[in-house]
Amino acid sequence: MATGAALDGLRSTDPGTANFDFGNPTGEGEPSVIPSSMPSVMPSSIPSGLNLTPTGGAKEPPLPPAGPQMRVVVVIGPTKTASTHEKHFLASHVSYLRRQNWTWPHSPTTPRKPGGWNDFRDLPHLLQGRWKNYDALRQLEWYRQEFVRVQKSGTDLVLGSEHFMALRDDVPAIEQFVAMMPPRSSVTAAVNYRRPRALHVKSLYKQHVNMQVVRETRPFSTWLCDTDIRRIISPGHAAAWLAGGSDVAMVDMEATYAGGGDVVDVLLCDVLGTKCTHSKPDGVPRKDITHRDHALTAEFDIEDEAVFARIETLLLRADCHYAKYLAKAQREGRFRMYPQSNFFQICNTMKSIEEDELRRQIQLIPELGCSNTHKTD
Question: What is the pLDDT of residue 131?
């Protein structure tokens, strides 16, 4: 995984990182059509002074050098972590957000009103320069002007798209996102962390089976042998955004639900800091917080719980590959976990593995039959 020089400390010839001493740090989804890896082709920041006014058009007045201090929270997922549920809530409660001094911004498709829940899906790809026949610089400048508009209104900014998870392997694009914010802005990426880990894999397969564009038809075992599941390693997303200059708030979904809450509760009360009572947002009906539109289903050709227990352990070990990096960021005040989580305590007892080793170990599980069609050496 090419995630920039800032993550070089995570790469080691020894995949094991057992006996970490972390002390005691405190702390369903839209269809995904994102390739497993993305090139790092864009500059680290938008060039200043770009004149994107059409020929003959009136020039915009120069932007002020700095506006009020503005917090920026970007909800990035990853996939199958209830991030679509979060974005549906945010986009449908813009008046509530405004009362709490937050703005869900306009979008290029809705330039005079707040965007829809999925209207910002183009922004990550613009940052990566994926669309060769698209006026990316003009669109990026549109977003920059919109972010300035929000700052001048005196509110903080929250937006999101599951497509931001495409930036996991593209730290320069994350740096560009941070750099395009107005002066006196601070950026926090909201990352959800789903456990049990094996259930996250099952949920991802269900999503693929139920996709409307390219429906998955292979059995689960074959799909898992062929699929790069790095996209669901939430600590890896957190590490990439930290390397790109953002702060990170990671929501432990298992701890959230065990405490009778919802990810939207944590996003609003802990990450955004809205007015709450007993960790529940004030002035919002509970049905708006807890509503789910659908539950996906799929058949599984593997039913042996021992297989899923092994997958669970392997994914946890891959998560823990980033534990030292995240613990350091937490001590620096750049990383938070909500609510109280045992993530670091688990990693303190576990030998970590890098993500390439994760895939190799999954392909070595005999019951999956990967060795019939894959080389594992």
Answer: 62
- The count of other CB atoms within 10 Å of the CB of residue 257 is 13
**From residue 138, how far is each of 27, 109, 127, 148, 185 by CA, in Å?**
40, 14, 12, 15, 22
DSSP states along 81-144? SSHHHHHHHHHH-HHHHHHTTEEPPEETTEEEEE--TTTTTHHHHHHHT--TTS-HHHHHHHHH
| Residue 74, CA distances (Å) to 39, 83, 220, 246, 337 in order | 21, 11, 32, 10, 16
Q: Which distant-in-sequence residues (6+ apart) come within 8 Å of 228 by Cβ?
A: 36, 37, 359
Report the mean per-residue pLDDT for the chain.
Answer: 83
What residues contact residue 149 under an 8 Å CB cut-off, 6+ apart?
105, 106
Torsion of CA 314, 316, 321, 322, to 10 degrees: 150
Of 264-268, 308-312, 369-373, the least confident? 369-373
In whole angstroms, what is the distance from residue 324 CA to residue 16 CA? 12
What per-residue confidence (pLDDT) applies to 47?
A: 31
Query: What does the alpha-carbon distance between residue 239 and residue 325 come to, in Å, rounded to a whole number?
Result: 7
Predicted TM-score (pTM) of this structure = 0.82
- Alpha carbon 148 to its chain centroid, in Å, reads 23
Q: How far apart are CA 205 and CA 139, in angstroms?
A: 34
Tell me which amino acid residue 7 is: L
How far is 252 from 263, CA to CA, in rounded Å? 9
Cis preceding-peptide flag for 339 (omega within 30 of 0): yes
Q: How far apart are CA 341 and CA 344, in angstroms?
A: 8
